[in-house]
Design a protein that fits this description.
With 208 residues, the chain is of the alpha/beta class. The protein is 36% helix and 25% strand. The protein contains 6 helices and 9 strands.
């Protein structure tokens, strides 16, 4: 059984997609052992409670400095003994110590086709605003392993989404979530649970 900690900051729609995927059998041999959030007002915490999943809130505002916050975050994650850490809309830079300890065991969902519109400053609606400003015809989502860079880890899978002339950042964000993020993230977790994801020389191979 794959033990998963999900880290979230906001509404938790990707968390819900994982919960639903487990309940519906799209994700097998997997359990969410803890939801970790940095925002006490996040709806994601309500989703976790409704699903009977234990959660913990580790807010930077509760600590005197960044170092103490990161120590608490690392401790909170490690206490759950995860096999996999999933960043599902987590607006916090993951401490390097945690990345090194869980090398190739932390994944992130990003709302673009990396390497487009990713890295520092590209999150939430900003990604979709940038895509529309550039006039791209195709966007999408990417699930990748997390390394010490920003959206630079090995790519597991991507899914493309069409951009329409009358799109706004909000309509595009919704379509990317519905057509790509909520499909891709559960699928990648299921592949990892089945032992079908291999990383070698910075590249991912999905074993058939």
């Amino acid at each position: 059984m794959l033990r998963v900690v999900v880290c979230v900051s906001g509404g938790g729609t990707n968390l819900q997609a994982i919960i639903d995927g487990i309940e519906q059998g799209a994700i097998s041999d997997t359990e969410i052992v803890r939801v970790v959030c940095n925002n006490p007002g996040a709806r994601a915490l309500e989703r976790a409670k409704a699903a009977g999943i234990g959660s913990a809130c580790v807010s930077p505002k509760d600590f005197g400095d960044r170092e103490r916050f990161e120590e608490a975050l690392i401790r909170t994650v490690q206490e759950a003994s995860p096999d996999l850490i999933v960043l599902a809309g987590f607006m916090v830079k993951v401490p390097a110590e945690l990345i090194r300890k869980y090398e190739n065991r932390i994944i992130n969902i990003h709302p673009s086709l990396i390497p487009a519109f990713c890295g520092k400053g590209y999150y939430g609606l900003r990604v979709h605003e940038a895509a529309l400003a550039r006039g791209v015809k195709i966007t999408g989502a990417t699930v990748h392993f997390v390394d010490e860079g920003m959206d630079t880890g090995p790519i597991i899978e991507q899914k493309a989404v069409k951009v329409y002339e009358n799109d706004t950042p909000e309509t595009l964000q919704r379509r990317v979530m519905e057509e790509a993020e909520w499909v891709l993230l559960p699928r990648c977790i299921n592949l990892i649970a089945a032992g079908r994801v291999k990383v070698e020389n910075g590249r991912v191979t999905v074993v058939e």
